[in-house]
């Protein structure tokens, strides 16, 4: 059989927020342990962000993201995915082949987009001032 070359992968693991806050090094070690157990060489692994989830996952309203860069034989990826499914502290995971993307590009610190607050009138439309509503409209003939 042909010798299979290892590829660079990105792993994003969503772990319980309480666990990551109490023991950040333990959360990172959990992600590294799952990868190294199946022969992956971890290049970089760090806590990326923590935020409120869009919906509850196993009664968790918040989650912490652990971002990892690793190289592994492509045939081992399914074993890593199975291990992630069986690990209770990992709520969700995503493994992506990132062969031609520099690591620095995807390890930027996560910054949530600033929220733009706007006052809305009825029907979801932006509310207009009364002066705008009462202003006469110039008609060209």
Report Rg: 23 Å
Please provide the count of β strands: 4
Percent of residues in β-strands: 25-35%
Terminus-to-terminus distance: 83 Å
Q: Total helix count?
A: 5
Structural class: alpha+beta
Order of helices and strands: EHHEEHEHH
Which stretches are poorly predicted, pLDDT < 50 over at least 5 residues? none
Largest sheet: 4 strands, antiparallel
Q: Write out the strand line-up for the largest beta sheet, numbering strands in chain order.
A: 2-3-1-4
Helix content: 25-40%
Name the CATH superfamily assignment of the domain at 7-102: Ribosomal protein S6/Translation elongation factor EF1B
Mean pLDDT across every amino acid position: 82
Second rung of CATH, namely the architecture of the domain at 7-102? 2-Layer Sandwich
- What CATH calls the topology of the domain at 7-102 is Alpha-Beta Plaits
* Overall morphology: globular
So what's the CATH class of the domain at 7-102? Alpha Beta
Structure description:
Strands 2-3-1-4 form a 4-stranded antiparallel β-sheet. The protein is 28% helix and 34% strand. It has a domain at 7-102: 2-Layer Sandwich (Alpha-Beta Plaits), CATH 3.30.70. It is globular. It is built from 5 helices and 4 strands; from the N terminus they run βααββαβαα. A hairpin with a 2-residue loop joins strand 2 and strand 3. The chain has 141 residues and is of the alpha+beta class.
Keywords:
4 strands; 28% helix; Alpha-Beta Plaits; alpha+beta
Give a brief outline of the structure.
The chain is α+β, with helices and mostly antiparallel strands.
């Amino acid at each position: 059989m042909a010798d299979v070359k290892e590829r660079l992968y990105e792993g994003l693991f969503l772990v319980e927020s309480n666990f990551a806050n109490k023991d950040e090094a333990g959360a990172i070690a959990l992600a590294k342990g799952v990868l190294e157990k199946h022969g992956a060489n971890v290049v970089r692994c760090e806590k990326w962000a923590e935020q409120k989830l869009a919906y509850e996952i196993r009664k968790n309203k918040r989650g912490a993201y652990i971002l990892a860069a690793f190289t592994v034989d492509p045939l081992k990826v399914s074993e890593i995915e199975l291990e992630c499914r069986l690990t209770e502290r990992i709520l969700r995971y995503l493994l992506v082949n990132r062969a031609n993307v520099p690591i620095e590009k995807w390890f930027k610190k996560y910054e949530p987009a600033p929220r733009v607050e706007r006052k809305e009138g009825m029907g979801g439309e932006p509310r207009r001032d009364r002066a705008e509503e009462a202003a006469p409209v110039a008609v060209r003939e």
